[in-house]
Amino acid sequence: MLFSKDDRWVTITQLGGTAGTMGLHIVSATVVGLTFGYFLDEYFGTRPWLIMIFFFLGVIAGFKMVFEDFRRLQRREEAKRNGSLKQDGEKGAGRDEPKA
User: Fold this and answer.
1) Pairwise CA distance, residues 93 & 71, whole Å
2) Range of the structural domain that residue 47 is part of
3) Is 4 within a domain?
């Protein structure tokens, strides 16, 4: 196998992917909030109130998703340290979280 599970580059790539996902969560949730706010403001004629409310709701939702991703990553690292994550080839390997 070209890369083993313990390879440094695999770990760096996984962490980079997780960090990229976290950034994407913040941006996408904010854009969705702004879009909903804009169209609701146009529909109800309440500009700029709904766009501001949904902007802040989008930011809050983005940070909530980042927090959940961080907690999932932290549980995965703790499970690795405790040895409870299954290795490649074992039944159930590839799941993000061990069963508690």
Assistant:
1) 20
2) 20-79
3) no
CB neighbour class for 51 (10 Å; exposed up to 12, middle 13-18, buried from 19): buried
d(CA 9, CA 15): 10
Structurally, the chain folds into a number of domains equal to 1
Q: Closest Cα partner for 17 from 73, 63, 59, 57?
A: 73
Residue 46 lies in a domain: yes
| Domain presence at residue 43 | yes
pLDDT tens-digit readout, 43-78: 999 999 999 999 999 999 999 999 999 999 899 889
Omega before residue 48 within 30° of 0, cis = yes
CB crowding 2-24: b at 16 or more within 10 Å, else e: eeeeeeeeeeeeeeeeeeeebee
Residue 11 lies in a domain: no
